[in-house]
Amino acid sequence: AAREPAAGVIEAINASGKPVVAVDIPSGLEADTGQVHGPCVRAANTVTFALPKLGLVQEPGRSHVGELHVADISIPAFLLEGGSPGRYLITEKMVREWLPPRPAWAHKGSCGRVLVVAGSRGMSGAACLTALGAARAGAGLVTLAVPGQLQDVVAVKLTEVMTVGLPGTREGTLARSARAEILNLLERNDVLAIGPGLSRHLETVALVRELLPALKVPCVIDADGLNALAGDAQILKRISVPAVVTPHEGEMARLLGHPPEEIRSRRLAVVEEAAGAWGVVTLLKGAATLVSSPEGITYINSTGNPGMATGGSGDVLTGLIAGLLGQGLDAARAAAAGAFLHGLAGDMAARERGMRGLLAGDILEMLPPAMARVECNRMGTF
To answer: What are the structural domain ranges in the chain?
Structure first.
């Protein structure tokens, strides 16, 4: 923490009412972690050198940075690349290079076929948002599989998504016996997204635990798909296909058996440790979403805003990542690009409509303009 007289100077700067430009890092901010232990400059702009410091892109430090500018100070590129830290800030340029161009001969079957297994009585919205997220990502065909009692409901809500009814329990959740039908459906699909709105019914939990090790296509696991693994997260190590898990801090705490406060205070270390231990790409949601691969590459997201803290936002992200997987991105890049585009869509929606009252549906609507912004800079104007 800053001591006097520096602490008093920092407080005077913050009280001045003037725009502040921080050079290298706002005074009072811990460079490696982003932690703030006392008075800290709140800058309108921060100019740092060569590469962004971890503390500038993680909360709470990120809130003190304002607009971040990385200045070139002529460090040779081979030195920066040769000493790769394995941690990268996700940028628009990076995502643009990852997104595959859609060829002139493309058809719906060549753009990715996504199966979404989601929903239960009272949670059909989560299932629909996930399916629409995959469709808005550009997947050519999306099928939503729900408990049979819900099929008519979701079919009315969705026009561009196919629906399938699966065996359900009396409580309106997926039954354990749905496993065979899901595996049969996956023979005609390229990617599975599973979890949103499934419930924690014992039969549904058993279904998830038995299904995941049997998968033969890449998958994205979220929400109740993760809650089903609480107490036995080692099941993730038995998945033999590329997989992405997308917990928020509470779900991560349940998976690891740690207090949520520990997850929040060690976000970067936690996501990297989890990815290595489980052998799956791990995305930890929150301010500055983190994505880590089992190979030791970590991506830090640079988009998003507090208005996105609304029910259904994470379901859209799950579908978005699944849709990108279906279009050929590897699991880590699909998760990182999904986080960036999801946050960018949220930022564009907030600028147009304001943060307060932002809905998951607003993020969905802004996904095509967000992707167009990224791709227009590659292709010129349409």
So the answer is: 6-84, 96-379
Q: What is the pLDDT of residues 269-289, one digit of tens each?
A: 999 999 999 999 999 999 899
Give residue 22's identity as a one-letter amino acid code.
Answer: A
DSSP string, 281-297: EEEE-SSS-EEE-TTS-
Residue 106 belongs to what H/E stretch?
Answer: none
DSSP type of residue 59: T
In this structure, is the dihedral angle defined by the CA atoms of residues 16, 18, 19 and 24, taken in order, positive or negative? negative
List the alpha helices (DSSP H) in the chain: 6-15, 62-65, 77-82, 92-98, 124-136, 151-157, 179-186, 202-211, 224-227, 249-256, 260-265, 267-278, 313-326, 331-353, 360-379
Report the DSSP beta bridge partners of residue 86. Answer: none
Write the pLDDT tens digit of every residue in 193-233. Answer: 999 999 999 999 999 999 999 999 999 999 999 999 999 99
Strand order in the sheet with 298-300: 87-89, 298-300, 290-292, 281-284, 243-245, 219-221, 191-194, 113-117, 141-147, 162-166
- Which pLDDT belongs to residue 381? 42
CATH number of 96-379: 3.40.1190.20
Share of the chain above pLDDT 90, in %: 87
Q: Which of 137, 112, 196, 140 lies closest to 371, judged by CA?
A: 137
Residue with tokens 């998760």: 335
User: 95 by DSSP, 3-state: which?
Assistant: helix
Instruction: Report whether 162 contacts 144 (CB < 8 A).
Output: yes
> 110-128, pLDDT tens digit by residue?
999 999 999 999 999 999 9
- Give 330-366 as a DSSP string: -HHHHHHHHHHHHHHHHHHHHHHH-STT--HHHHHHH
Query: CA 248, CA 110: separation in Å to the nearest integer?
Result: 32
pLDDT in the model for residue 83? 55
Q: How far apart are the first and last CA of the chain?
A: 52
Query: How far is 36 from 49, CA to CA, in rounded Å?
Result: 21
- The three-state secondary structure class of 243 is strand
> What pLDDT band is residue 82 in, cutting at 50, 70 and 90?
low
Full-model pTM: 0.93
Q: Is domain 6-84 in CATH 3.40.50.10260, yes or no?
A: yes
- Dump the DSSP string for 179-201: HHHHHHHHTT-SEEEE-TT----
